[in-house]
Amino acid sequence: MGFLRPLNPPIRRWDGQRVWIVGASSGIGAALARALAARGAWVALSARRREALEDIAAACGGEALVEPMDVTCPEDFERVRERLLAAWGRLDLVVFNAGTYRPLRAGELTPQAIRDTLHTNLLGIMDGVAAVVPLFTRQGRGGVALVGSVAGYGGLPKATVYGPGKAALINFAETLYLDLAPAGVSVFLVNPGFVATPLTAQNDFTMPALMTPEAAAEAMLAGFARGDFEIHFPRRFTMVLKLLRLLPRRLYFALIHRLTGL
């Protein structure tokens, strides 16, 4: 039946797939690069730090392309896109994993902190999508994967800027799907819970269901293989947050205070 079909064409074989990972220098992006390279994918790695990217490329067997860039510079997306097309002839999947995180309470907001976070986590991703969508629609195939966060499901303490940016990214992915799926272009929304990365190392509270980057990468690959639109993990944690959103606001706020202690 039509409503039981996967929302995206499942990706089960990676041999020869051309995958560009934006935000590949550490954490989930680096782990995903290694996992894809081990499965035969052609991988391109982008982030600001060339040295870190070269280390990841070496861990991928030395075959990965290293393309440093800054997601806050829209022209960088176009430059790297053209370099990859010249090298590969096509792109099959772009994973937008770049992001930054700074724990902030309401009284700690500053204009600069707001703009620094949103420029990287939202505007930069939107610029990147704008750079590759015309290519994919011309090809009539390909896909984009946007790495959001469960922080986008609802308000959480210390996520005063980070959470709204991720909520907007969720809405952006949903809107992209409506436009791109009829054109044969896949859209994947990845919403991780807590993953042990340099960014989450800033947290001064216990992180429930904390995952390794390698486990997160495997969860992403499993979601691609199912053709999911939303890939969220670990489910024992993400499903709780989804259920909390169904509660009346008064109960939601009380439970969040109790669960976080904040």
TrEMBL record:
The keyword Lipid metabolism does not apply. Pfam families: adh_short (PF00106). The keyword Oxidoreductase applies. One of its GO terms (molecular function) is oxidoreductase activity. Keywords: Oxidoreductase. GO terms for cellular component: membrane. It comes from the Bacteria. Belongs to the short-chain dehydrogenases/reductases (SDR) family. This is Oxidoreductase. It comes from Zoogloea ramigera. The lineage of its organism: Bacteria, Pseudomonadati, Pseudomonadota, Betaproteobacteria, Rhodocyclales.
